[in-house]
Design goal:
Elements: H1 2-15, H2 19-41, H3 52-81, H4 94-115, E1 127-134, H5 138-144, E2 155-159, H6 160-167, E3 171-174, E4 177-181, E5 185-190, E6 195-203
Antiparallel strand pairs: 1-6, 2-5, 3-4, 4-6, 5-6
Helix pairs in contact: 2-3, 4-5
Length: 211
């Protein structure tokens, strides 16, 4: 009897997840998420290490993280469709959607401003800017743009005035001057994978335009 109990206990212990291993995995994922956020916040100016080993490790971490997300999405689809006891994640409340959209809004606003550096084409308001981001939840992206639901387009143009009402005022500061979005419209592109892009023109204030 004692031998059977001991053997049963060992089986239970052997089948239990290792807390230390899980903790290391969570820490590694958090570090990769931080790397993704840093790159997206400054896509054109993010510093690249001169060490090939460091660059290779970053690429491997990003690839591993991307594959993990793919597996999670695939697993989630199976859980919802298959006869599993797992419960699908409940939809976000309107308050949660607005909170997530506000974080996305502030990130986009900051990222666009960082790109508004001085260029000779700023004199004519024809300098180009583009902001790339990712939003895994279409409902959140829809809340950001006031769509009342997930986006149903791949590409759409918003008037600059409407875009800034949704995302917030965009102003770039350079020495002795202020830069504005000068294009009449801002192009918004959306992919079902969650990737999106905002793009337009910017530069000095142009007579006859209301910013």
């Amino acid at each position: 009897m004692a031998s059977q109990a001991s053997g049963s206990k060992r089986k239970i212990e052997d089948g239990a997840p290792a807390p230390a291993k899980r903790s290391r995995s969570n820490a590694a994922q958090a570090a990769t998420v931080a790397l993704v956020n840093s790159i997206l916040a400054n896509p054109k100016g993010y510093p690249i290490s001169g060490s090939e080993d460091i660059v290779r490790k970053s690429l491997v971490d990003l690839a591993t993280y991307a594959r993990s997300l793919e597996q999670q999405l695939a697993g989630g689809a199976t859980l919802v469709a298959g006869p599993s006891k797992a419960v699908a994640k409940p939809p976000r409340s309107q308050e949660e959607l607005e909170e997530a959209a506000d974080k996305l809004r502030r990130a986009a606003q900051s990222g666009i401003k960082k790109q508004m550096s001085w260029k000779p084409s700023c004199k004519t308001g024809s300098a180009k800017w583009s902001y790339d981001g990712i939003c895994p939840d279409p409902e959140v992206f829809g809340a950001l743009l006031g769509l009342g639901g997930p986006p149903k387009f791949k590409m759409k143009k918003f008037s600059t005035d409407e875009f800034q009402k949704l995302v917030g005022p965009i102003r770039g500061s350079v020495r002795y001057d202020t830069l504005y979005i000068t294009s009449a419209e801002v192009t918004v592109r959306w992919s079902d994978t969650g990737e999106f892009k905002f793009s337009g023109s910017y530069g000095k204030w142009q007579p006859g335009k209301d910013y």
